[in-house]
Design a protein that fits this description.
single chain, about 160 residues, alpha/beta, 5-stranded parallel beta sheet, 5 helices, 5 strands, binds adenosine-5'-diphosphate
Length: about 160
């Protein structure tokens, strides 16, 4: 495989996911990714076949862009309407950024990383979850919220602190 380095010397990664919602676990991966890469593009997966999803996706891009504004030019939020790996490549990203909480996550992420390398030649950098966030998932947050539980401890504080 030929390895090409970006001409401007900027190392950009793409952190893609559903982020429905974006949790403190996601924020931890993003901040740690920014210790490794110059820029991290957060890509919100969008399901073109689902009704109302485009509008929702646009709204989530706006909300998340506002939340991540303190990182300035080092982050950017976009919608991904196709396959992540080729879109990331087209944006000049050198890697995909992902997080793993468990062995189950790892099995899934390893398969995705292998396939994405095969189809686009893009590498995946996988960070292990901080133990304090290891049990947090968007689906658990959505479920708790549906029962009226206060989920603010699982969501990034707004305004955001850019420290760790
Ligand atoms: P997807 O729908 O692609 O799984 P998610 O929005 O659930 O997207 O997650 C995006 C990435 O963030 C995945 O790599 C996932 O493993 C990781 N992630 C999710 N929650 C956490 C967490 N609490 N700690 C670390 N990584 C996490």
């Amino acid at each position: 495989m030929t390895h090409r380095f970006p001409e401007d010397g900027q190392r950009t990664a793409v952190f893609a996911g559903s982020f429905n919602p974006f949790t403190v676990g996601h924020l931890s991966i993003l901040k740690r990714g920014l210790e490794i890469f110059d820029k991290v593009i957060v890509m919100i997966g969008h399901n073109a076949s689902k009704k109302d999803d485009s509008e929702n996706a646009e709204k989530r891009v706006e909300e998340l862009s506002r939340l991540l504004a303190p990182f300035g030019e080092r982050t950017e939020v976009r919608i991904c309407s196709g396959l992540v790996a080729p879109e990331a490549k087209a944006l000049g990203a050198v890697a995909l950024l992902r997080g793993v909480r468990s062995v189950a996550d790892f099995e899934y992420e390893r398969n995705m990383a292998d396939i994405n390398r095969d189809i686009s030649g893009i590498e995946t950098v996988i960070l292990t979850a901080e133990p304090r966030y290891g049990a947090i998932s968007s689906s658990i947050v959505r479920e708790l919220r549906s029962y009226g539980y206060d989920v603010t401890p699982f969501l990034p504080a707004s305004p955001l602190s850019t420290d760790n």
